[in-house]
Protein backbone atom coordinates (compact mmCIF):
# COMPACT_ATOMS: atom_id res chain seq x y z
CA UNK A 1 0.00 0.00 0.00
CA UNK A 2 1.35 3.40 -0.93
CA UNK A 3 2.68 5.45 1.92
CA UNK A 4 3.34 2.58 4.29
CA UNK A 5 6.41 3.31 6.45
CA UNK A 6 7.09 6.60 4.71
CA UNK A 7 10.10 8.07 6.53
CA UNK A 8 9.17 10.93 8.82
CA UNK A 9 11.48 13.97 8.53
CA UNK A 10 13.45 14.12 11.77
CA UNK A 11 13.32 17.92 12.06
CA UNK A 12 10.10 19.04 10.42
CA UNK A 13 7.35 16.66 11.53
CA UNK A 14 4.26 17.69 13.45
CA UNK A 15 3.79 16.11 16.88
CA UNK A 16 0.34 15.57 18.35
CA UNK A 17 -0.76 14.47 21.82
CA UNK A 18 -4.00 12.62 22.43
CA UNK A 19 -4.46 13.52 26.08
CA UNK A 20 -3.25 16.76 27.65
CA UNK A 21 -2.21 15.59 31.12
CA UNK A 22 0.99 16.06 33.08
CA UNK A 23 3.00 13.44 31.16
CA UNK A 24 2.07 14.94 27.79
CA UNK A 25 2.97 18.37 29.11
CA UNK A 26 6.34 17.13 30.41
CA UNK A 27 7.21 15.55 27.06
CA UNK A 28 6.12 18.61 25.10
CA UNK A 29 8.03 20.99 27.38
CA UNK A 30 11.18 18.86 27.09
CA UNK A 31 10.95 18.70 23.31
CA UNK A 32 10.54 22.48 23.04
CA UNK A 33 13.23 23.25 25.62
CA UNK A 34 15.75 20.97 23.90
CA UNK A 35 15.18 22.66 20.55
CA UNK A 36 14.21 19.35 18.94
CA UNK A 37 10.95 20.82 17.65
CA UNK A 38 9.50 24.33 17.87
CA UNK A 39 6.27 24.67 19.85
CA UNK A 40 4.50 25.63 16.61
CA UNK A 41 4.84 22.01 15.44
CA UNK A 42 3.17 20.54 18.53
CA UNK A 43 -0.55 20.30 19.23
CA UNK A 44 -3.00 18.73 21.64
CA UNK A 45 -6.71 18.94 22.42
CA UNK A 46 -8.49 19.87 25.63
CA UNK A 47 -11.56 21.86 26.62
CA UNK A 48 -10.47 22.71 30.17
CA UNK A 49 -9.02 26.19 30.62
CA UNK A 50 -6.27 25.11 33.06
CA UNK A 51 -4.83 22.43 30.78
CA UNK A 52 -5.13 24.66 27.72
CA UNK A 53 -3.27 27.42 29.55
CA UNK A 54 -0.50 25.02 30.63
CA UNK A 55 0.32 24.09 27.01
CA UNK A 56 -0.28 27.54 25.56
CA UNK A 57 2.14 29.01 28.11
CA UNK A 58 5.05 27.59 26.11
CA UNK A 59 3.54 28.03 22.66
CA UNK A 60 1.80 24.72 21.95
CA UNK A 61 -1.38 24.90 19.90
CA UNK A 62 -4.45 23.56 21.74
CA UNK A 63 -7.52 22.60 19.72
CA UNK A 64 -10.95 21.39 20.83
CA UNK A 65 -11.07 17.85 19.42
CA UNK A 66 -8.74 14.85 19.17
CA UNK A 67 -9.81 14.49 15.53
CA UNK A 68 -8.14 17.82 14.76
CA UNK A 69 -4.90 16.63 16.38
CA UNK A 70 -4.84 13.43 14.30
CA UNK A 71 -5.56 15.24 11.05
CA UNK A 72 -2.66 17.65 11.62
CA UNK A 73 0.08 15.38 13.03
CA UNK A 74 2.76 13.04 11.67
CA UNK A 75 3.66 11.51 15.06
CA UNK A 76 0.80 10.93 17.51
CA UNK A 77 1.38 10.14 21.18
CA UNK A 78 -1.48 8.49 23.06
CA UNK A 79 -1.10 9.88 26.58
CA UNK A 80 -4.45 8.99 28.12
CA UNK A 81 -5.40 6.82 31.10
CA UNK A 82 -5.02 3.08 30.37
CA UNK A 83 -8.72 2.39 30.93
CA UNK A 84 -9.78 4.68 28.06
CA UNK A 85 -7.07 3.90 25.48
CA UNK A 86 -9.28 1.34 23.70
CA UNK A 87 -12.21 3.75 23.43
CA UNK A 88 -10.01 6.56 22.13
CA UNK A 89 -8.13 4.36 19.63
CA UNK A 90 -11.35 2.91 18.22
CA UNK A 91 -12.83 6.40 17.91
CA UNK A 92 -9.80 7.74 16.00
CA UNK A 93 -9.18 4.61 13.92
CA UNK A 94 -10.97 5.84 10.74
CA UNK A 95 -8.73 8.94 10.68
CA UNK A 96 -5.36 7.22 11.10
CA UNK A 97 -3.02 6.87 8.13
CA UNK A 98 -0.13 4.45 7.51
CA UNK A 99 2.03 7.54 7.03
CA UNK A 100 1.63 8.37 10.72
CA UNK A 101 3.74 6.95 13.54
CA UNK A 102 1.75 6.14 16.68
CA UNK A 103 3.21 6.06 20.20
CA UNK A 104 1.60 4.98 23.47
CA UNK A 105 2.75 5.87 26.98
CA UNK A 106 -0.28 4.20 28.61
CA UNK A 107 0.83 1.82 31.37
CA UNK A 108 -0.10 -1.85 31.11
CA UNK A 109 -1.53 -1.72 27.57
CA UNK A 110 0.37 -4.02 25.22
CA UNK A 111 1.32 -3.45 21.60
CA UNK A 112 -0.89 -6.25 20.27
CA UNK A 113 -4.00 -4.63 21.72
CA UNK A 114 -2.94 -1.12 20.67
CA UNK A 115 -2.35 -2.27 17.10
CA UNK A 116 -5.67 -4.14 16.96
CA UNK A 117 -7.72 -1.21 18.31
CA UNK A 118 -6.05 1.36 16.05
CA UNK A 119 -5.97 -0.92 12.99
CA UNK A 120 -2.40 0.29 12.67
CA UNK A 121 0.89 -1.60 13.18
CA UNK A 122 3.25 1.35 13.00
CA UNK A 123 3.21 1.68 16.77
CA UNK A 124 5.87 2.19 19.44
CA UNK A 125 5.17 1.64 23.11
CA UNK A 126 7.12 3.71 25.64
CA UNK A 127 7.26 3.52 29.42
CA UNK A 128 8.48 6.86 30.81
CA UNK A 129 8.37 7.79 34.50
CA UNK A 130 7.39 10.87 36.47
CA UNK A 131 10.87 12.53 36.60
CA UNK A 132 10.05 13.46 33.00
CA UNK A 133 8.64 16.59 34.63
CA UNK A 134 12.20 17.74 35.45
CA UNK A 135 13.89 16.32 32.35
CA UNK A 136 15.27 13.24 34.11
CA UNK A 137 12.96 10.45 32.92
CA UNK A 138 14.05 6.84 32.62
CA UNK A 139 12.12 5.64 29.54
CA UNK A 140 12.08 2.33 27.69
CA UNK A 141 10.59 1.69 24.26
CA UNK A 142 9.54 -1.34 22.23
CA UNK A 143 8.75 -1.26 18.51
CA UNK A 144 5.51 -2.61 17.04
CA UNK A 145 5.17 -4.83 13.99
CA UNK A 146 5.53 -2.17 11.30
CA UNK A 147 7.66 0.41 13.12
CA UNK A 148 11.06 0.84 11.45
CA UNK A 149 14.49 1.39 12.95
CA UNK A 150 14.23 4.97 11.69
CA UNK A 151 10.97 5.34 13.61
CA UNK A 152 12.76 4.04 16.71
CA UNK A 153 15.57 6.55 16.27
CA UNK A 154 13.10 9.41 15.96
CA UNK A 155 11.30 8.39 19.17
CA UNK A 156 14.63 7.89 20.94
CA UNK A 157 15.50 11.51 20.13
CA UNK A 158 12.08 12.72 21.22
CA UNK A 159 12.13 10.97 24.60
CA UNK A 160 15.82 11.75 24.95
CA UNK A 161 14.66 15.35 25.37
CA UNK A 162 13.14 14.44 28.76
CA UNK A 163 15.85 12.12 30.11
CA UNK A 164 17.39 8.82 29.06
CA UNK A 165 15.76 6.12 26.94
CA UNK A 166 16.53 2.46 26.36
CA UNK A 167 15.13 -0.10 23.90
CA UNK A 168 13.91 -3.49 25.16
CA UNK A 169 11.64 -6.39 24.27
CA UNK A 170 8.07 -5.77 25.38
CA UNK A 171 8.11 -8.97 27.47
CA UNK A 172 10.35 -7.08 29.93
CA UNK A 173 7.90 -4.19 30.40
CA UNK A 174 6.26 -5.50 33.58
CA UNK A 175 9.66 -5.74 35.25
CA UNK A 176 10.57 -2.30 33.89
CA UNK A 177 7.34 -0.92 35.37
CA UNK A 178 8.28 -2.44 38.74
CA UNK A 179 11.73 -0.83 38.64
CA UNK A 180 11.66 2.53 36.85
CA UNK A 181 7.91 3.07 36.65
CA UNK A 182 7.28 2.61 40.37
CA UNK A 183 10.86 3.23 41.48
CA UNK A 184 10.62 6.99 42.02
CA UNK A 185 8.15 6.34 44.85
CA UNK A 186 10.65 4.06 46.58
CA UNK A 187 13.28 6.78 46.36
CA UNK A 188 10.88 9.42 47.70
CA UNK A 189 10.34 7.16 50.71
CA UNK A 190 14.09 6.78 51.12
CA UNK A 191 14.64 10.57 50.94
CA UNK A 192 11.89 11.14 53.49
CA UNK A 193 13.36 8.49 55.79
CA UNK A 194 16.89 9.92 55.48
CA UNK A 195 15.54 13.36 56.35
CA UNK A 196 13.65 11.92 59.33
CA UNK A 197 16.90 10.32 60.43
CA UNK A 198 18.61 13.69 60.22
CA UNK A 199 15.87 15.27 62.33
CA UNK A 200 16.16 12.41 64.86
CA UNK A 201 19.90 13.13 65.04
CA UNK A 202 19.22 16.82 65.75
CA UNK A 203 19.05 18.59 62.36
CA UNK A 204 16.43 21.20 61.47
CA UNK A 205 13.80 19.71 59.12
CA UNK A 206 14.55 21.98 56.15
CA UNK A 207 18.29 21.31 56.30
CA UNK A 208 17.75 17.57 56.73
CA UNK A 209 15.47 17.36 53.69
CA UNK A 210 17.81 19.44 51.56
CA UNK A 211 20.79 17.28 52.49
CA UNK A 212 18.85 14.05 51.93
CA UNK A 213 17.59 14.99 48.46
CA UNK A 214 20.94 16.37 47.29
CA UNK A 215 22.75 13.30 48.64
CA UNK A 216 20.49 10.97 46.65
CA UNK A 217 20.89 13.14 43.54
CA UNK A 218 24.67 13.20 43.92
CA UNK A 219 24.92 9.46 44.53
CA UNK A 220 22.77 8.70 41.47
CA UNK A 221 24.98 10.98 39.36
CA UNK A 222 28.09 9.16 40.59
CA UNK A 223 26.62 5.86 39.37
CA UNK A 224 25.31 7.14 36.03
CA UNK A 225 28.32 9.32 35.15
CA UNK A 226 31.26 7.92 37.09
CA UNK A 227 31.60 4.53 35.42
CA UNK A 228 32.05 2.63 38.70
CA UNK A 229 29.85 -0.17 39.98
CA UNK A 230 27.68 1.00 42.92
CA UNK A 231 29.27 -1.67 45.12
CA UNK A 232 32.68 -0.12 44.47
CA UNK A 233 31.38 3.37 45.17
CA UNK A 234 29.93 2.10 48.45
CA UNK A 235 33.28 0.56 49.39
CA UNK A 236 35.02 3.85 48.58
CA UNK A 237 32.90 5.62 51.22
CA UNK A 238 33.02 2.91 53.88
CA UNK A 239 36.38 3.21 55.67
CA UNK A 240 37.39 0.56 58.26
CA UNK A 241 35.58 0.99 61.57
CA UNK A 242 34.06 4.27 60.38
CA UNK A 243 30.67 5.93 60.43
CA UNK A 244 29.47 4.70 57.04
CA UNK A 245 30.09 1.01 57.67
CA UNK A 246 28.24 1.34 60.97
CA UNK A 247 25.23 2.72 59.09
CA UNK A 248 25.50 0.05 56.38
CA UNK A 249 25.56 -2.62 59.09
CA UNK A 250 22.20 -1.37 60.37
CA UNK A 251 20.75 -1.38 56.85
CA UNK A 252 21.92 -4.96 56.31
CA UNK A 253 20.42 -6.08 59.63
CA UNK A 254 17.10 -4.62 58.50
CA UNK A 255 17.20 -6.40 55.14
CA UNK A 256 17.41 -3.15 53.18
CA UNK A 257 18.52 -4.66 49.87
CA UNK A 258 16.07 -7.53 50.06
CA UNK A 259 13.21 -5.15 50.79
CA UNK A 260 13.98 -3.04 47.72
CA UNK A 261 14.30 -6.15 45.56
CA UNK A 262 10.96 -7.41 46.87
CA UNK A 263 9.33 -4.05 46.13
CA UNK A 264 10.40 -4.19 42.47
CA UNK A 265 9.21 -7.79 42.09
CA UNK A 266 5.86 -7.04 43.79
CA UNK A 267 5.22 -4.05 41.52
CA UNK A 268 6.22 -6.09 38.45
CA UNK A 269 3.76 -8.83 39.42
CA UNK A 270 1.01 -6.26 39.90
CA UNK A 271 1.77 -4.82 36.45
CA UNK A 272 1.51 -8.32 35.00
CA UNK A 273 -1.90 -8.73 36.62
CA UNK A 274 -3.12 -5.48 35.11
CA UNK A 275 -1.88 -6.38 31.63
CA UNK A 276 -3.79 -9.70 31.72
CA UNK A 277 -7.15 -8.03 32.43
UniProtKB/TrEMBL annotation:
Q: Which GO terms describe its molecular function?
A: pyrroline-5-carboxylate reductase activity
Residues annotated to bind NADPH: 66
The Pyrroline-5-carboxylate reductase catalytic N-terminal domain sits at 14-108
Which Gene Ontology terms of cellular component type are present? cytoplasm
The primary location reported for this protein is cytoplasm
Q: What class of enzyme is it?
A: oxidoreductase
The residues covered by the Pyrroline-5-carboxylate reductase dimerisation domain are 170-273
Q: Where does NADP(+) bind?
A: 18-23
Provide the protein's localization.
Answer: Cytoplasm
UniProt EC number: 1.5.1.2
Name used for this protein in its record: Pyrroline-5-carboxylate reductase
Amino acid sequence: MAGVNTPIPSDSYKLGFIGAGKMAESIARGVVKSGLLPASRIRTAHLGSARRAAFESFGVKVVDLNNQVVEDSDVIIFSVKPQIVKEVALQLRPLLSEKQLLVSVAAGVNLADLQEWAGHNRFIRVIPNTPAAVGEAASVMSLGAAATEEDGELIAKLFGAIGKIWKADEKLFDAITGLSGSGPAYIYLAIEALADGGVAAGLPRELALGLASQTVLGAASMVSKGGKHPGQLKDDVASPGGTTIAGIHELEKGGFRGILMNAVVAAAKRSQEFSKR
